[in-house]
Each structure stands twice: as structure tokens, then as C-alpha cells.
Amino acid sequence: MNFYSENDSLLRKNSVFTNNSSNLNNDNYNNLSTNSPSNYIVGSIGRFASSYTRAQSFKFIEGNISTARSYFVNGEDEVFDPKTLAPSVKGQRLSSYDNVSSNDEAIDDQSIVITIDNNNSNTFNNHNPMSSIMGRNFRTNSVYSRFSIPNTISTINDQNSLLINPVHTNTGKVVPIIQGQSTSPQTVFNSINVLIGIGLLALPLGLQKAGLIIGLPLLFISAFSTFQTAKLLSACMDTDPTLMTYADLGYATFGKNGRALISVLFSLDLISAGVALIALFADSLNALFPNFSKLQLKILAFCILTPPTFLPLSVLSIISLLGISSTILIVIFIFIAGLIKPTSPGSLISIMPINLYPQSLPQLLLALGILMAPWSGHAVFPNLKNDMRFPSNFKNCLSVTYIITFLTDFSMSIIGVLMFGNQVKEEITKSILITKGYPKFIHLTILSLIAMVPIAKTPLNARPIISILDYFMNLNEEEIIDENDADFSKSLYKKIMKIFNRVFVNFLFVIIAIIYPQFDKILALMGSALCFLICLILPCLFYLTICKDSITAKERVICYLTIFISSILSIIGTIAALTVN
């Protein structure tokens, strides 16, 4: 997309722009000068929607474990999705555009604006002075950074162009890459959407099992430690601009075995999240409608959640906004419910007795995974940084994200234990739904919001698993829609198998939710078995390997201690999640 200024006067005062303004397209310049406030608002909403849609595409499972970079062919030819204009594991190569190459003399210290035309009439704007201002890259002390003019860069409504920048890899080679498009506020929102999920509904139970004296520090340590390791991922990416995904960092550290391990971990994480959503749906409806068994409600969930998996990403992204909106509203309505009810249980006016210490060691170990589960955003943090217009601001975005998320999780934990004490259920919402004394609208509102969360999130969680199944079964989309395919039976088979994969993944969620039905145990298992590994252990190993030439002795000791302690807690927490009643 063409790049313009949010503040026309600031950009017109820039000497580069002024001295070269004759090179600008006249129509574009008129748009810059006459943008109305309404057009700017519409454009801002459009850019926000585009950023959010791109963020939803970042959840994917790597199929080809031998590739060094997820979004590159031969390590130097980036691939992007023409629909989202974001880097992608499949799509169009940048080399398909005549003026984009990996030849150092051709692209070094230049920026190129490419326009993506649906009619395959692809154009470029090379040496555009505005794109030079906004796109040129510099390397300082072997760290990748982007040049920026603070508060002056923005995209306009044109969603068909993107900016290509030359960057130096850690080997010194110059490679063209797509510049990110998301602003800092957009990145903060996308990051919060990753972290604030159904895990917070079990936090009151986790705090009750751990006791206030131990539980609250554990929640803070979980947040602080994962925040620090998220910054380690960012530091690793700074060593080479072609490191764009978590799997890229795994390959850079362990080779193809690392990429394979991460694909397995991501698959287990997505399956666990899907199972937890099914369990949440059934538990919540069963609490208000006990005449329907949880088995019947899980079958109902399968029938409701399977059709949306056939929808395109652009539609699923819009639907998924209901997920974060519903979760935030749930927190608000739980607080309102506590203020409305004058008597315990379920009241913030007359609070319940609270455990200061854990009742037993097994309960504390179970709480460990529950308190860790909400912080599992590291799988997509590298993508979110790469999608930023100015990636150097990512650490500031992380700070804002973690402050907001911690305050939300802390509030939910405290409110839940104050309202229900030792009587709190595996989901705080279930405690409210089975407690009498609330106005009818509280029950109906919370139930409606809870029902929306699985509908909004499950299809997106299923999408990467479906994609990897399609990949291994060679169900190439282009082959399916090829009208000239002479082998009709082969094409029909692939269509049927793609449908089967979508149905099968949702069926898998339901079957596991029937076998392992307890919502809190699912989250405890996710927190102990997966979050410790993905969010603490692996980031430290990445940092020790990728940044070994710049790491300090103190950082090295802290990383090894984190790996050692996290490994022990992960093992005993996983055992507790599988065995403790």
C-alpha cells in the first residue's frame, strides 16, 4: 500500500520530500492534501481491520521442517499472501516482480513500492522519495533496525500496495523483505487478543488452590518471567531480519529438529485450546440447563462449530473479534454481579473466607499450571514484531500489553476468590451460573457471552491443524479449483478429503473433551506441559545460541537457572495435572 503522512505539514517540511516532490504521482499528492476527517477515520478502521486479519493468519504449523526460514524460498525470496499482503508460507514470491531481487547492487539502500493488481497488472514505484523516507533500512552494530520519522508515517486507504525494503542478513547478504504495516496501538491490541483468553476464567480456582500468600506472587512471577523471555525472542530476531517466526528461531538454534519440535508443540497447544473451548461451552450450558447432559452439549458444540471452519480467514477474523469482546465483557459483568448480590456466596459486599496457603502440595502443583496458562503468547510474538511498521517499538508494545493483561488477570483472580472462596468452580462463570440470587439478566448475559467465545475462537484454532493435514495429504488448493484438471476423480477426492479434515479436527476436539472433560485440568496441563516449554525454556535456549556473541555472563546464568527451574516445575506440574483429583 502507498505510504502517506498522518500529519501533512510535518512531511511537507521534510527536505527530502520537498526537493523531490515533482516525482510523486499527482493524484496521490492530491489525495494527501485533501484527505477529509471522515476518510481518515474510515481508512484508520480499514487499517486496523487489516492488521487484525494479518495477526489471525500468524497461527500456523510448519509442514516443511527442512526450510531455514518459514517465509522464504532458498533463504532469500520472500513469499507473501496477496490477500493479506503479509508474509506467508504459500503465495506469491517477491521475485515474480521484475524490480525485486536479491542482487546486492540492484536493491541495496533502495525502497520499492509494489502495487498488487487483481488483474495481474503489477506495478512498482522505485526510488520514490516518500518511500525512501519511510522504507530505508540501516544496520548499526550488526543489529537490524528501521529508519523512522516519529508520528509522521501512515498508510492510506489503498489496500493493494506494499513497501519492499532491502535488509542485511547476519551473513551480510542483502535481501528484499516486506515492511510491516501495523502501528504500535494495533500491535498492542493484537498482543492483548493473544494473551487475554479463556485461561483467566480458571484463575480464581488457581488462586484458591495456591492460597493468596503463594498464589499472587506466582501469578506475578509467571507474568514477569514470560515478559522477559518475550524480550529475549525480540533480541534474537534483531540479529537477522529474515528471522520472522518462532519456528525460524527454533531452526536457527536446533536445525530441522527444532522446527519439527515446535510444529509438534504448536499442534498440541492448538488441540488443547480447542478441547478447553468445547469443555467451557458444555460446562456453562449444563450449569444453566442441567436437563441436558454435558455429552449432549459437546455434540451440540460440534454441530455449531464445524460449519465456520469452512469460512475464509477474512470472515473468521471478524467473528473472532467477538471472542476478545466477550471475554472482556464477562469480566465486567462478573464484577457487576458481585456488586449486585448483597449476600455470600457470589458477593463482593459480603465476601467468602479465603485460603492464605495451599491446602496440600498436589493442589499447589495443579495451581502452578493454571496460573501459567494465560501467558502463552510467545508462539506469535515474533510474527507480531515482524508485522510492525517500526519493529524497534515492539518492546514498548510488550510492556503495555503485559501491564493491561496482568491487571485484567489479577482483577479476575481477586474478584473470583472474594466472591466464592473455597466454593469457586473450575470456571468462575460456572460458579455464577449455578448460584441463586442474581437477576435473571446476569445469568442470561454471561451465558450468552460464554457461548460466543468458543464460536469465535474454535474455528481459528482449528485452522492451522486443518492446514497441516491438507499439507501432508497434498491437498493443494490450486489443484482443487483447477477447472482444466483432466483427472476429475482425483480432484473430487481432494475436495472430499478437505471437507473430511475440517470435520475430523472438530470431532477430535469433542472426543478429547469427552475423555478429558475437566476444564481446569486441561488448562493446568497446557500451562505445565506446554507453556513452560514454549514461553520460558525454549526462548532462553534460543537466546543462548543465537545471541551467544553478545550475551553477558549474568544473562547466561539467569537463562540457565530459568531453564533448570522451569524444567522441574513443568515435569511435576504435568504429573499433577494428570493425576491430582
Strand-helix topology:
Layout: E1 3-4, H1 8-13, H2 15-19, H3 26-34, H4 37-56, E2 72-73, E3 77-81, E4 86-87, E5 92-93, H5 104-107, E6 112-115, E7 123-126, H6 129-135, E8 137-140, E9 143-146, E10 154-155, E11 161-168, E12 174-178, H7 184-195, H8 203-210, H9 212-237, H10 246-254, H11 256-288, H12 294-305, H13 313-340, H14 361-372, H15 381-386, H16 394-420, H17 428-433, H18 440-472, H19 477-480, H20 488-515, H21 519-546, H22 553-579
Antiparallel strand pairs: 1-10, 2-3, 3-4, 3-5, 6-7, 6-11, 8-9, 11-12
Helix pairs in contact: 4-7, 4-13, 7-16, 8-9, 8-14, 8-16, 9-14, 9-16, 9-21, 10-11, 10-21, 11-12, 11-18, 11-20, 11-21, 12-20, 13-16, 13-18, 14-21, 14-22, 18-20, 21-22
Protein name: Amino acid transporter transmembrane domain-containing protein
Family: Belongs to the amino acid/polyamine transporter 2 family.
GO molecular function: L-glutamine transmembrane transporter activity; L-histidine transmembrane transporter activity; L-isoleucine transmembrane transporter activity; L-tyrosine transmembrane transporter activity
